[in-house]
Amino acid sequence: MARTLEKVDVVTVGVGWTGGIVAAECTKAGLKVVGLERGQERGTADFLHVHDEYRYAIRYELMQNVAKETVTFQNTRKMKALPMRQMGSFLLGEGLGGAGTHWNGWTYRFLPYDFEIKTLTEKKYGKNKVPKDYLLQDWGLTYDDLEPYYDKFEKTAGISGENKNPYGGKRSSEYPTPPMVKTPILERFEKATQKMGMKPYMLPAATISTTYTNPDGSKINGCQYCGYCERFGCEYGAKASPEVTVVPTALKTGNYDLRFNANVVEILKQGNKVTGVKYIDTLSLEEIIQPADVVVLTSYVLNNAKLLMVSKIGEQYDPDTGRGTLGKNYCYQLNAGSTGFFDEQMNVFMGAGALGMTLDDWNGDNFDHSDVNFIHGSGIWITQSGNRPIAKNPVTPDVPSWGPEFKKASIYNFTRTLYVGGQGATMPHKENYMSLDDTYKDAYGLPLLRLTYNFTEQDRNLFKFSNDKTEEIMKEMGAKTVVPENVIEEYDIVPYQSTHNTGGTIMGVDRDTSVVNTYLQHWDADNLFVVGAGNFNHNSGYNPTGTVGALAYRCADGIIKYSKSGGSLV
């Protein structure tokens, strides 16, 4: 029988960026908050041996154990979904900080177009620009509505950047720290793209350029450019992550109880209210009930949706009828790009996860889509993130993939190759969604989440367009040989592509077309909030974390308002 604990004001499920932000803001407002994290405690001191590439980048030390909890995958409903038993297309974080510990730190704001994509697309191109099978919809708020929260997140994380993007929305203030160092490699990209008429700017970075103390008093150190960011925790405390920013803020209030090895298996509900959550202590296997006035789902996209499904909260999306919203609008991202092989050596083994330049000339609706058969676009970028010896073995297509010739070529090319990428937006399609698997279960007896997903015609067209742009840029940069990415056909859950999963718990102003309102408050239970990239109605040409952070601050505002007056916030 489950043991019931004393009721608290707020319980969060997951302690990454969203859980940390909600905890920090609510505890500062005087609310008692419990943070439940199914992974372990960790922090800067635990990452002193972080340069072990095999341990962290290949064997995924900081990631979720997919033997216990994973997803099943199928391209279409006619296929048999099978479990992902090794990390593949995306990397699911676990432990204090979640994916915010092992991220690279690219911190964009979405374009104003993103938030009103349906209205603005139809206004400019007509209602027939997007086929009816694409489930395009506005978010219910505008860029201007979210701008103060973007500003707050950037100041909390100390984001390093420059306000030189001519396509971005208006900013209420400058970036809190200067951009990272502009290296010769970035200057080569800048010179080439400017010559081509494009407008590059330094990539906004959470691997910050200088020591910084944020408004809550948390200190973030300046980056050392060691090149071990993505898939690693930062040994210097120089990468803005939850465990060095918002979690300490919550803890120092005295109103925060942080619990580890606490795997939530059910949201408890009576009538039109939730009453708390049930979790399992993964060390003792004891079942525990944590009552709360407010429950906030702050775990990863996939787990937030799964918990709502197993708890039977909300109506599951049905692709046959179009009814239901839970699991709807699952989106991924496209990864176009070109590798350039050069004669001269370059310092590619040092850098940082977000040391780069980027441009938005081919992103959003920043170019005329009248004569192309897709909408939205790709952010085009180059990074100097630090090539590592196990994962990076660049050779041209004419070189064998093994043997003496491969070894010689990969060693020669290690410091003579660059990559220009195109991160493409994906639009929601009626056949791409999340549901519960009817065969496979996790270690606690719950059904696994099932992904039904494939690239669409929109994706393939955008990919080719973006691939061509990266190839043109790489040629202008002077590469002697340019190798673009292979054309995409069917999506496969291996190899790694991007951890930028979105949708499934989408936001809006209409309960018939969304799971939560614009404060991320659930339509079916006004004391339940769900926050994360699952709220995105479509994916963008950007990394999601900046927008996730902004939504978390808006959600925290909503929770505090609800704690005072109750009821629906919209």
UniProtKB/TrEMBL annotation:
InterPro entries, per the entry: FAD/NAD-bd_sf (IPR036188), GMC_OxRdtase_N (IPR000172), GMC_OxRtase_C (IPR007867)
Residue ranges annotated for the Glucose-methanol-choline oxidoreductase N-terminal domain, each copy included: 193-330
GO molecular function, one term: oxidoreductase activity, acting on CH-OH group of donors
Source taxon at top rank: Bacteria
Pfam families reported in the protein's UniProt record: GMC_oxred_C (PF05199), GMC_oxred_N (PF00732)
UniProt cross-references to SUPFAM superfamilies, sorted A to Z: FAD-linked reductases, C-terminal domain (SSF54373), FAD/NAD(P)-binding domain (SSF51905)
Domain Glucose-methanol-choline oxidoreductase C-terminal: 428-552
Parts forming coiled coils: none
Keywords, in A-Z order: FAD, Flavoprotein, Oxidoreductase
Family, as annotated: Belongs to the GMC oxidoreductase family.
Name of the protein described by the UniProt record: GMC family oxidoreductase
Organism the protein comes from: Cytobacillus dafuensis (Bacillus dafuensis)
